[in-house]
Amino acid sequence: MPLFLRTQRLEVTRYGKEGHETHRMPEGMAMTVDFEIEGQKFVAFNGGPVFKFHEAISFQLNCDTQEEVDYYWEKLSEGGDEKAQQCGWLKDKYGVSWQVVPAVLAKMLQDKDTKKSQKVMKAMLQMHKLDINTLLRAYE
Asked: For 62-82, b where at least 16 C-beta lie within 10 A, e where not — what string?
């Protein structure tokens, strides 16, 4: 079963002969790939091995249920860097950072009652994979 149910590749542009002295990529290799995941459009650029993934870029998955959190956490963390798992963040086997977040978390953290929001923050900071029930108990 695929990780995401609704995905599609939209467009691919390829490197040509022009500019080879600059980009050093083989003619015909994918340069950009436009794709869609669960209705969200993305463009990936193939800059070669010089450009690495890092924490400045991450993908956020807002999950409605704990089952969704568990599913995406399990699939995305498989083969990834266990040391990079904190507060709902993980790094997958390709070095891509993901935030697997309960959708309700933003509402709790933005609550005008700062005592409630700070209790949620404190609880979240103790977690690797986020647990909705634990966050809700801290919020209550």
From this structure: ebeeeebbeebbeebbeebee
pTM of the model: 0.79
Residue 83 CB neighbour total at 10 angstroms? 7
Contact (CB, 8 A) for 48 and 24: yes
What are the tens digits of pLDDT across the range 121-136? 999 999 999 999 999 9
- Residue 23 to residue 50: CA distance in whole angstroms: 11
Residue 80 is classified by DSSP as S
**Six-digit token pair at 98?**
């993901």
What domains appear along the chain, each with residue ranges and CATH number? 1-48 (no CATH), 55-140 (3.10.180.10)
Provide the phi-psi class of 68: left if phi over 0, else alpha when psi is between -120 and 50, else beta.
Answer: alpha
Question: Could you tell me which of 133, 37, 39 has the C-alpha nearest to residue 120?
Answer: 133
- β-pairing verdict for 97-102 and 58-63: parallel
Under 8 Å CB-to-CB from 11, ≥6 apart: which residues?
32, 33, 34
